[in-house]
Amino acid sequence: MDHIRHPSPKETCVYHPLPNKHHRSRRSGFTLIELMIVIVIISILAVIGIANFLSLQKKGRYAACISNQRHVHEAAVIYTMDNLVGTQLDNVTVLTAAGFITQEVGECPSSANVDFDDYDIQYTVGDVTSITCNILGAEHLYTP
After folding, report:
1. What pTM, to 2 d.p., does this model score?
2. Residues β-bridged to residue 128
3. CA-based angle 26:18:21, to the nearest 5?
4. Could you tell me the strand order of the sheet in which 119-124 lies?
5. Tens-digit pLDDT profile for residues 5-29
């Protein structure tokens, strides 16, 4: 009989570690959670930036409206010197027609309609007492 040699237990036992389920593979890239966190952070920053931009736009329109009202006031004072003006309420179109201001000055930047007649002028006995914005009068309050 042939003698068959069987390997010893030491020869057959080779250690092969089982892969760890929590061990990250060597592939490069980001997990879905990491990508979602980055997207959320970028979204929050975008919302903050848009809110600041809209606030600055509103402040800019306010400043432009006050500047227009100041120009209308100056033109109205000159208009009263050239014309006999009593106590009355006029629209800015009177100053535009007489050539004292350009049409663009008569337009509030917050107006949806481009009609160049957004300001009223109150005269009291030949003196300019108030300029009123017809679009956002309470918010765009100008005191001469």
Report:
1. 0.68
2. 123
3. 55
4. 88-91, 119-124, 127-133
5. 666 655 555 555 555 555 555 667 8
